[in-house]
Amino acid sequence: MSLLPNKSIYATEDAQFIVRNDIHHDDLEYNELLIETHYSGVNPADIRHSTLLGIRSTVVGYDFAGRVISSPPGSKYKEGDIVAGYTPSGLGRPTKYGAHQDYLTVPQDDIFKVPPNLPKAHAAALAVVVMTAADAIYNLFKTPLPTTDPGFITAPILIWGASSSVGISAIQLARAGGHKNIFVTASPGRHALLKDLGATQAFDYSSPTVIEEIKSAVASLGEGPITHGLDAVGSMSSPCSSSSAHLLAQAVSDSAVLASVVLRPGTKFQMPVAAIKDGWSIHPPGAPGPVSFPTAPTRHQNAWKALLWAVDYYGTKFRFPVVEVFYVTPEEAVGELVKVAEGKRGFGKVVLKHPFR
Ligand SMILES: NC(=O)c1ccc[n+]([C@@H]2O[C@H](COP(=O)([O-])OP(=O)(O)OC[C@H]3O[C@@H](n4cnc5c(N)ncnc54)[C@H](OP(=O)(O)O)[C@@H]3O)[C@@H](O)[C@H]2O)c1
């Protein structure tokens, strides 16, 4: 490995994002594979985990697709296989796990083989957001996993900010699990697309009357109150009375089960998490000490089954409508990561082509 040229995007200890050419991976564990990265998927977390959660002195990025260079003895993955998945997070994260580099290392439990129906660039965009949506829908909301014969759940579910990639995933997973009435909020220009993916009623989240519109639609539907609500965007507006979670909570009854993609301490919102197989910790700047996320293996296995379902049925029962591939230098890529983290890229997934230019 030490001879392989490897450009990477590195978060320094003071959360600056720099390009390094000197990182090599000679420290593979017994269960890890070395991967030649072909695409790395961009998430808001790539930057935010360094700036907001204190995960630093590491190569950034989680989602990827690429070719197996080496695998452990007895592994089901062999040299040359095309695989995708995501890499572990947390304080002390080794540089080998960063996805935004030309070679990376990944534990073999965190990957899947890329089938012919799944374009490689799309495979690099899946794991983080599908695992998060799956944790919300199948674990926190307890919707049954996709089956060939889903029972219909008639009580409405509401997904706020449903054109986020987590939201797009949640709509399709909710439909696959048997939800018949899927209410969403999104910009009006997305409503037709979201209905095509499985939403049944769509509302403009920026309408001053959106809460009344949703309540009136629930009453007209006559299938009972909204039982579950997912804040799929996690906006933190000031004043907080216009945050996505606050608006969602106003649109549903007090008995609804609620989840938000970001931590909402002191509220009834539970948080779905993309990576719960292993325990990991964060240390937000200014916090008195680290905060730990415990391991939740059963939740992980359930969500992983859903991810594999999305992989198997990609292009028919599950899809991302927009995956934009950037073939850029790592310096240019930093600009794209920042735009995504600041919510300035808008709709669709962004994926970086490797090797970096
Ligand atoms: N907990 C976890 O493990 C975890 C994992 C992954 C992501 N997340 C979090 O989940 C959130 C979504 O991530 P993502 O990658 O899916 O986002 P994304 O794809 O970048 O979301 C972009 C979309 O957000 C929508 N949006 C922006 N502001 C909005 C608002 N105020 N209200 C409603 N919708 C709004 C826009 O929809 P329109 O086009 O309709 O305007 C836009 O198309 C982020 O906060 C991210 O940090 C958490």
TrEMBL record:
Question: Known Gene3D superfamilies for this protein?
Answer: Medium-chain alcohol dehydrogenases, catalytic domain, NAD(P)-binding Rossmann-like Domain
Ranges where the Enoyl reductase (ER) domain occurs: 11-352
Q: Which InterPro entries match?
A: ADH-like_C, ADH-like_N, ER, GroES-like_sf, NAD(P)-bd_dom_sf, Trans-enoyl_RdTase-like
Matching entries from SUPFAM superfamilies are given as:
GroES-like (SSF50129), NAD(P)-binding Rossmann-fold domains (SSF51735)
Keyword list (alphabetical) reads: Oxidoreductase
Question: Is the Protein transport keyword given for this protein?
Answer: no
- What PANTHER family is this protein classified in? HYPOTHETICAL OXIDOREDUCTASE (EUROFUNG), ZINC BINDING OXIDOREDUCTASE, PUTATIVE-RELATED
Q: Could you say which protein family the record assigns here?
A: Belongs to the zinc-containing alcohol dehydrogenase family.
Descriptive protein name:
GroES-like protein
